[in-house]
Write a structure and sequence with these properties.
two-stranded antiparallel sheet; 6 strands; single chain; 4-stranded antiparallel β-sheet; alpha+beta; 2 helices; elongated
């Protein structure tokens, strides 16, 4: 099992959710986060004063998936979140050692 974590632009959330549904992902966790990478941030004007916004709003999506689905999930997220502009985001894949469904006690892939 793998944990696929994607950091995307907020307005792309619905597109990514739909793309993941189409490849059979039933559950995801979504968190509003702030951060920066190569995009760095930007300056804004407020009441005539200029200030730097270092951390940009992003959306973090996490999905626990079977190993066989990882490539499909990565492709679905990449296609749905791509705008071709800086700040589109990143995808991280990490191993999950154990999964337990609290309600039933199921473990491993059955718990997904």
């Amino acid at each position: 099992m793998k944990l696929v974590t994607a950091i995307i632009k907020p307005f792309k959330l619905d597109d990514v959710r739909e793309a993941l549904s189409e490849v059979g992902i039933a559950g995801i966790t979504v968190t509003e986060v702030k951060g920066f990478g190569r995009q760095k941030g930007h300056t804004e004007l407020y009441r005539g004063a200029e200030y730097v916004v270092d951390f940009l709003p992003k959306i973090k999506i996490e999905a626990a998936v079977a190993k066989a689905q990882v490539d499909q999930v990565i492709e679905a997220i990449t296609k749905a979140a791509n705008t071709g502009k800086i700040g589109d985001g990143k995808i991280f894949v990490s191993a999950i050692e154990q999964t337990i469904r609290i309600r039933t006690g199921e473990t491993g892939p059955d718990a997904l």
